[in-house]
Write a structure and sequence with these properties.
Layout (H helix, E strand, L loop, with lengths): L1 H17 L6 H38 L13 H37 L3 E5 L5 E4 L1 H6 L11 H4 L3 H12 L15 E5 L5 E11 L2 E9 L1 H36 L6 H32 L8 E4 H18 L3 E5 L5 E4 L1 H17 L6 E9 L2 E8 L21 H6 L6 H11 L3 E6 L5 E8 L1
Parallel strand pairs: 7-9
Antiparallel strand pairs: 1-2, 1-5, 3-4, 4-5, 6-8, 9-10, 10-12, 11-12
Helix pairs in contact: 1-2, 2-3, 7-8, 8-12, 9-10, 10-12
The structure holds adenosine-5'-diphosphate.
Length: 445
């Protein structure tokens, strides 16, 4: 612009000087003025154009094209303005990229969390809900803007939100777990969720909620409690009998040999029972603790079946039962020979114990692709479908009295399943045709 003005002035003065060399002075002045005006107009137009170009660049930066920059062709003040604009745009872009990175990292952490996280607005609407929380609420997508108390209609949750709102606002490093209001809720899905709530007053969030799924934990606690009570119950009877018999012996029973013998035999029987329970419990805990050496090796199934049948023979012969083995020669499985013996003997003993005199038992093995199937079947009364899964639980018996009478501890099938799973296999129980029970075991070939 300065250049043009100076040019106009120079031309004006040149024309004015022309007067001295013979031009009509009035005409020369007029032409000079016209040229100055023309150049002034061109100069002004150029200024407007540059200003408009910078405005356009600024507008583009502010809208969809933050990458746009002012051209370096500008000069003078416009160049300075353009540089300042470009500098500001670079800085803004860097800051935006940093913020975007931070937001993405936060998003990845939030979405990857096992815990559910919900942010509620001051009026109790969902402003933030991660994937776990969405699933825990039984929703398919984050229920944004919905009122949480409409989604979970439980007075205890309303109470928790009120307690959270009334709690003091603390910095995260000041919060102690015991200060955080919590409540455990049973959800319609059957899941048990532990909810914690913090008051907040930032980014439009009034309360921040965290939810932890404690279903499995509570189930384990129940199993542990039931287990302890079952063990105590199982041991209480024999201990009481041993105690009473010993007392009777001390109180004069010893003076009468036939009675003393009866009491002594009772003590022996119940001591044996306690010893069986304790040894089964130890087996279970050893398998669970991984202390049972089940390092897999190629076990010859045929040999193990023949060995187990030999061990059970005295019992089956005494009960007039027959055992048929269907053996495919040369089969091996990945497992442990002692563990496999324990499994087979347990299943064969049960087949003998829970079927009447003279019944028939079958045991066999066959290759099934990558696996080997072993089975033990009988033609006894069988096991009703409602009991088939539960008989593998500790101390579960269909007829507790009969099982005890037969010397059972209720732990045999629990041990069998643990051993098979430790060897990487599976076991099922089904009905045998036309009657009886059939246990099928699959192990890796
Ligand atoms: P137990 O020490 O009582 O035999 P198990 O865990 O070995 O314990 O078996 C659990 C229950 O499963 C038994 O009490 C019995 O009721 C049932 N059961 C196991 N095997 C058979 C079978 N072959 N036929 C019928 N019932 C069986």
């Amino acid at each position: 612009m300065f250049l043009l003005t100076s040019l106009a002035m120079a031309i004006g003065s040149t024309l004015a000087a022309g007067v001295t060399v013979g031009f009509d002075p009035a005409l020369a002045a007029l032409i000079g003025a016209a040229m100055s005006l023309l150049l002034g107009l061109v100069g002004a137009r150029l200024v407007t154009l540059q200003a408009r170009r910078l405005t356009e660049v600024a507008q583009a930066m502010a809208s969809d094209h933050p990458e746009r920059r002012a051209s370096v062709a500008s000069s003078g003040e416009f160049q300075e303005l353009g540089d300042a604009l470009n500098h500001m745009a670079d800085k803004l872009e860097r800051t935006t990229a940093e913020l975007r990175g931070e937001r993405d990292r936060f998003g990845v952490v939030l979405e990857g969390m096992v815990e559910g996280v919900i942010g509620l607005t001051l009026d109790g609407r969902v402003a933030l809900c991660n994937r776990s929380a969405t699933a825990m609420l039984g929703e398919t997508k984050p229920p944004l803007e919905k009122r949480l108390l409409d989604l979970v209609r439980q007075p205890a949750l309303k109470d928790l939100l009120e307690r959270a709102r009334a709690a003091p606002h603390l910095r995260p490093d000041e919060v102690r777990e015991s200060d955080v209001p919590q409540v455990e809720l049973a959800m319609p899905s059957g899941a048990k969720l532990l909810w914690s709530a913090w008051p907040l007053d930032r980014a439009g969030i009034g309360v921040l909620l965290a939810m932890r799924d404690v279903t499995a934990l509570r189930r384990l606690e129940t199993v542990r409690r039931d287990f302890i009570s079952n063990v105590s119950h199982e041991l209480r009877t024999p201990v009481a009998i041993v105690y009473a018999s010993a007392e009777a012996l001390c109180d004069g029973g010893l003076e009468e040999p036939p009675i003393a013998r009866d009491f002594a035999e009772t003590i022996l029987r119940h001591a044996e029972r306690m010893s069986r329970i304790i040894s089964d419990l130890l087996d279970l805990s050893r398998i669970e603790a991984g202390a049972y050496d089940l390092s897999p090796s190629g076990v010859h199934v045929t040999e193990r079946i023949r060995h187990a049948v030999r061990l059970i023979e005295p019992t089956t012969t005494a009960r007039n039962q027959t055992v048929t083995a269907h053996i495919e020669d040369g089969l091996t499985v990945r497992g442990n020979p002692q563990a496999l013996d324990q499994v087979l003997v347990n299943l064969l003993e049960n087949a003998s114990k829970y079927t009447p005199q003279g019944s028939h038992i079958e045991v066999g093995c066959r290759r099934d692709g990558e696996r080997v199937e072993l089975w033990v079947a009988d033609n006894g009364p069988g096991i009703a479908a409602s009991h088939r899964e539960r008989i593998f639980e500790r101390f579960y018996r269909i007829d507790a009295g009969r099982s005890r009478e037969l010397g059972g501890t209720g732990l045999g099938l629990a041990i069998v399943r643990h051993l098979i799973e430790a060897m990487g296999g599976t076991i099922t129980c089904e009905a045998n045709e036309p009657t009886g029970a059939r246990f099928r075991v699959w192990l890796h070939a």
